[in-house]
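Dear colleague,

Following up on Tuesday's group meeting, I ran the structure prediction for the two-component complex that the binding team flagged. I've pasted the input sequences exactly as they went in, so you can double-check that nothing got truncated or mislabelled along the way. The structure tokens for the whole assembly follow below. Feel free to forward this to whoever is handling the docking comparison.

Inputs:
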Amino acid sequence: MEAGRSPNIEIIANAELQEVSGSAGDFRVKILRRPRYVDVTKCTGCGVCSQYCPVIIPDPHDQNLSGKKAIDILYTQAVPSAYFVDSDYCLFLNKQECKQCTRACQIGAVNFDQKPEVVDYQVGAIILTTGFKEFDPDRISAYHYNDSPNIVTGLEFERISSASGPYMGKIQRPSDLKKPERIAFILCAGSRSSVSGNSYCSSVCCKYAVKDAIVALEHEPDLDITIFFIDMRMHGKGLENFYERAKESGVKFIRSRVSDVKPDSHTEDITVKYIAEDSSLQEETFNLIILPMGLEASHGNFALARATGIDLNQYGFCRTGLFHPLSCTREGIYVAGGFRGPMALPDTVTQASGAAVCAAELLFPARRTLISEKQFPEERSVEEENLRIGVFVCNCGKNINGVVDVPEVKKYAARLTDVVMSADNLYSCSEDAQRLIKETIVREKLNRVVIAACTPRTHEPLFQETTREAGLNKCLVEMVNIRDQCSWVHAHEKAEATKKAKDLVRMAVAKARLIQALDEPVIDVVPKGLIIGGGLAGMTAALSLADQGFESFLIEKTGQLGGNLHNIHYTLEGEDPQDYLKQVVDLVREHKLIQVFTEAEIESVNGFVGNFQTAINTLQGSEKKIVELQHGIIIIATGAVSFRPDEYMYGKNDHVMLQHELEGQLASSRFVPGDKDSVVMIQCVGSRDDKHRYCSSICCSMAVKNALKIKEINPSTNVYILYRDMRTYGFHEDYYVQARKQGVVFIRYDRNYKPEVAEVDGRLQVTVRDLLINKDVVVDARLLALSTAIVPQKDDILERALPVPRSEDGFFLESHVQLKPVDSYLDGIYICGMAQFPKTIDEAIAQAKAAASKAGILLARGYVKAEPVISSCDPDICVGCGICEYFCPYNAIKMKKVGKRKKAEIITAACKGCGVCASYCPTRAISMGRFTDDQIVAQIEAFGETVMVKEQKAW
Amino acid sequence: MVNEPKILGFLCHWCCYAAADAAGVARFQYPPNIRVIRVMCAGRIDPLFILDGFLNGADGIFVGG
């Protein structure tokens, strides 16, 4: 929606990139625009064409579980929100007859004369986000996907359990629409298998299977759910907790290899044959089977690669480098999301921000040259006018109209005090309705507007824009929620829902009579950044800000830049991290826009988004000094460290070490693996247990990396990896397979039977219960490497100075896990790198870029606009008691001496408009924009007043 | 009318109001007795608003924040 509304984004739907010529900064691209046979500028999305269309086709959005018309919209939130003719099915396009839609469309938006056209564009940079494709279950015959409607893919099940899906959110099986009693998920369908051709791990299937299982249980608590898996890969923030929750809710997890899935043609049930962990052959019967399919490269990737001149990897995904994870092989072309490889939503969003900043860096010299900003007419002053309220009631197609009697509400609204007109719209948010509302405001000289429609949370900005376009201040519109909180939730009580809608409209009109035009305060931003932490993430963020033209201060606690990267000497991908580290440190040190402070500690942070003041204690010459810094944003990149355990003889025996210590010894040849030596690695030390409940994500890959290194140095050395689940997600799976092939022995242990380590005759002895044969295995180890949890840096001083919320594990919290993965809870403060969660080198770089991208938006804009919901204080009434300052949760009120008395002063940029101050103020000196005492009291009175109509006002 | 109480609700924009919207998106059904006033935070609610609500005929007040 936001992208659709931006004047700086042109959406070209139904198009294909055909050719890219030129070079970075000056590309020429040819784009084939296919006809949609509907004029996007005319279509209002009313849907009448679709009602008249006689052709019913499978609905791809519902995974073909339901039908739609040959002229339709993909889903209700689609942008552009215009209808679309499916040329494969349309009767007119195929048989030259019908054209019902053309006749049905009142405004002539349907246009069968549209032809494909090739359009040339000139662009500076290209970002490829073409996504992935779900693996086709037909390709594995053992799943019998086509033999039973009750074997569904993960995406099909998403639609089955969705409230807006084909079964309205009821868990039913497709064959007989009956509620299943027993359902099963079979994981690694089309992944981690040479049969499918996709040897990599799709990274997301375990997670979404667990999510779907939990959602299904929320719908139907008595469902019996089984998940068949090889390794449960619940790496990533918060996901291990989710896994534990699923187990507690009764989901059964069976570690197994499924060999056959057999549908019964009579009962329509399905029998699953599998090899259990103890190698026994078992079978169980279920009513519904879900195959959470793996993700693979789209068919179109090869054509795209040809057109753009970029390389793909061996699986058909975009080829990128470890240190340049968002750059394609051709300069000036960047990539994010599923086209790079399988990944979860937060990574996709992070990479999208990161790719955007890559383009911003490249195009920095041309910044602000081609943007267009929306122009609004001058605001009409309404202060002196008599109240003229207009009420617009939305039908929302059938969404409101199907339950609430809209004409009745419209008639009722017209009778309310100061209401001069009321009208109803089919879709108030459609372009034609917007035009109509604007014209009505001007024609009827309205000075307050009430929109009874959906929720202000999503649509208030749209209607505020409409009123601005009609010359009214954006605060002169008030929304009434008669869809999300009325028609949708009282679908079977039409009379009561209509009554409720009328009451809500009356209350809103009562409030609207008191609303006033308000200014949006604008606060300047200091165009500099502060980055806390000089590791890879911090340095990457600083360089990105610098390449966007912004100065930054980079604060490092220790004496040298580089952080954990100093401990990484080789990588699975074969690239040299120390060489890269040196390059980055040199770039940072030499960049004139980056000021580095080492041995620096934060003393205090004051201020708010756009205007921070930070005092640091740092080494200047030979002595420590306090330095004051002014900056507009903060990026937190404080990193994480390996947990040091007190078990497995760590610290007691020199041959027991952490995984990165082993890496250091292998790199420096301090440890040279001998022919008959055995090296044992234990995974999940202090991880996924009571100490640290989360999975640290990267330790499995690290162990495989070190195991492969040992085998490379001496193939005769025995390597044992004792693990709980191997979580070598994504393309790292290939290295796990390679390690197995090279003879690395993987032994699974259970959390309740942890390996035991003893010193026998001066040698290390490791004993582990092998669950495959149910016997103890004893290994004499020359060296024991522990893969311990990655824990966040602890820094009490920083925590006091900068109280940014963290998770219970101590990692910084993002303000929205999926959609705002680098924004902290506080405005103007961003997080990246291992301070957010343990991650690989490429993930850390992508996230640092994303944080610099978000920060760059604010710094480039140069100002912060505060929403006019914020608090204001009347100094004539304020008695200076200071209770507001005490209670303000955002430190947005400071008591300031004015003459002889103290008065409350609101810091505009820090105020969130919560109104705690106003509710405590004993003299009512504080007033909240758009939520004043008077307005709320008027709503309360209108709630009680069942008749607030004009006739009564005369009494 | 004994069984049809009039309930006045004050919902925080960021949490409970959003949750009430989500209930709508999921098409959860609940009795139509509540009339909602949106506020930017439950902390905005002056105790007098509650008394005012009762004075204006509310049988119950729902504060969601």
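Chain A touches chain B through 46 residues (CB under 8 Å).

Cheers,
M.
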